[in-house]
Amino acid sequence: MSSIKKRVLEFLKNYQGSYIPQSHIHRALGVSKSRISEILRELESEGFIIRQNIGKSKIVYVNPGIFEKYPEIQHRVLKIGIVYSSEYLFLGGFIKRLKKRGFSVNILIYRDGLRASRALAEGLVHVTLSPLVGQLYLYPTYRTYRIILAGLQGGFRVLRKVGSSRVYSSMISTMDYVRYYSQSKGLVEASTTIYYSDPSNLHIARRDGGFVVTWHPVYLELEKWSFKTLYTPSDLDVEFCCTLGVSNTITQREYKILEKTYIEALDEYSSRPSRYIDYYSTITGIDTSILKSAIKEYSVSSELSLKTINKVLYAYTPTLPNREIYYEAITITEN
Fold first, then answer.
1. Are residues 135 and 75 located together in one domain of the fold?
2. What is the pLDDT of residues 298-330, one digit of tens each?
3. Is the distance from CB of 187 to CB of 230 less than 8 angstroms?
4. E strands, 120-205, where?
5. What is the CATH number of the domain that holds 201?
């Protein structure tokens, strides 16, 4: 990296999350307009900044939470966040391919999908597998990541145990969307929604009863507590679950490698879903016998498209800001 580019990066640290005039940078650093413009083009292609023209001026938006991680990115160390679930049985193939392509990988496991997505948005991880709903929800606030619109579907249940009239769900997640959909269609008649940030918090539901929307393997535990399945994915119009979020701290070249590797791993899973079960069990602590039962619960989604995004946005997200902003985050893959 050139000494001038290092100076520009150090300077921009002071403006993370802000828009500044491009002319301010060359004046403050005493570097020619043309050289600063050249460096900013590089930083833009690497996902560090966003530039836009307003009249005859150029405005630079400096992405927040990225420069502290710059040394790690230079060494191609990836922190990957996942949600505790049985969904990512392709993870072993994904990591194996990433290592062959020069990355080293650290896995962080979150008990709640929204926490995993927020970790991505705030730069605590470089990549996350987390619910599409949460990734979309947080995007207008942060705008620090992109979403590769590919993943799995299925793996949830709507359960009921006679007792209270509450419905339990994780917040701003696929489960929350299923809750919303079920209630809007009159399939679940609940008076109160209770959100759990960790599946272990469902002990109240186990005691008092009610409706629960949750994922594999959590619903297997609830079945032991006399909860009965009301609806499965085949009963409801939900053809998505988790997608791959990628931080803007990843360079454009690395992003393309990640996208290609992810799609390859999903394709392999389609033909050999049990190949990396032992590895995934080691990572998550979920017993292999339970993971084997998950194979029939999840499948690679072939329906993820702008139609999917629109369905989520028009049914679920706020009307402020304008919904067009969400489309900035999306990369649609060709499977």
1. yes
2. 999 977 888 888 888 877 656 667 878 888 888
3. yes
4. 127-131, 145-154, 156-161, 166-169, 192-195
5. 3.40.190.10
